[in-house]
Amino acid sequence: MSADLRGIGMTSQRTRDRLIQRLRHAGIQDRQVLQVMADIPRHIFVDEALATRAYEDTALPIGFGQTISQPYIVARMTAALLAGGQPSRVLEVGTGSGYQTAVLAKLVDEVYTVERIGELQNLARQRLARLGLHNVRFKHSDGSWGWKSAAPFDGILVTAAPEEVPEELLNQLADGGRMVIPTGAAGDQQLLLFTRHGDEIHQSNLSRVSFVPLIKGEV
What we know:
The chain has helices spanning about 5, 15-25, 30-40, 70-80, 100-105, 120-130, 165-170, and strands at about 60-65, 65-70, 90-95, 110-115, 135-140, 155-160, 175-185, 190-195, 200-210. By secondary structure, it is an alpha/beta fold. A 7-stranded mixed beta sheet has the order 5-4-3-6-7-8-9. Strands 1-2 form a two-stranded antiparallel ribbon. The longest helix has 13 residues, at about 15-25.
């Protein structure tokens, strides 16, 4: 790994490991998820001016009114997605900085990621290439449509909050598949888990959360 990926000082592996300890103390127990997050240099997914804050357990701005999610939330959502068994093909709605994409790419065979902001996705593509992650397919599109031509998916993870769950995403979930998605208006959002069993879809509530809204259209 190159020196800029390894980091120094506030971006060093030691700082990264302290974050992982905080996540463990906060209740994240999935060892695979914790190890992957210990390995990935989160500081390359934010602007250089914010790099020294990359290993704080907080969301950070990435431009275009978007954020890189709080590490605890990334870990919680990823662990919830994997709790039903290791998915092979996962759809991510909202590429954003590419950090959550990188976490998924280290854990599953194939990641399909959709982003409505083309410039953000181009940056994410470059970052994942630097990390040697080549099992990710990118699509510039309205995330609420999912990726119908590649469906069904064993897992779907949504990184922005629609006020109502898009029916199209539920339709793209494979039998036995799981979808983790924040929903609701700003200030009143819940993180939900949907599991498909044949024609039935079961829903459970994981926690209260705060996400940027899922906006329709593409730019």
